[in-house]
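Q: Trace token order:
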Amino acid sequence: MYSKTPAKPAPQVFCTFEDLEVYRLAREFRKAMYVVTRQLPTHEKFELASQIRRAAVSLTNNIAEGHGRYHYLDQIKFQLQARGSLLELIDDLNVCTDEQYLPSEEVTKLKTQATAVHKLINGCIRHLRERKTGADLELHESSSVGEMIDDDLDDPLANTI
């Protein structure tokens, strides 16, 4: 006679932070921002360039560190920090525009790349918030009059590009 053995469940694939689309896109943006630092004038090499490099590294570091956290709120916290670093980089690009360090076409291209990363970070935050429900997961950033609502967060540059 034949005995039926239960089917083994498919092995779960381990996912590292390097497998995340948000990390891959953020990494490409970080590399692009490092290229920007090499184009800055000499007098900005130790000021603006240093600030850009720190924020760019913070972007990918926070995505990586958040992925390694066990609790949803920790993961969300690091995604929010990554998003803050990304927005800081957008402001640094505004400095580059204001001071005419980069051609406007290059800044526009970089801001478009930043918007794609921003959308993925917000998608990660939404995903993490939806995975666990409950009052203890409620995490609201402070908002003031005139601030963007959650639906507007996917395109931080909608009114600037």
The chain has one domain: 17-133. DSSP finds four helices and no strands in the chain. Helices lie at 21-39, 48-67, 72-98, 104-131.
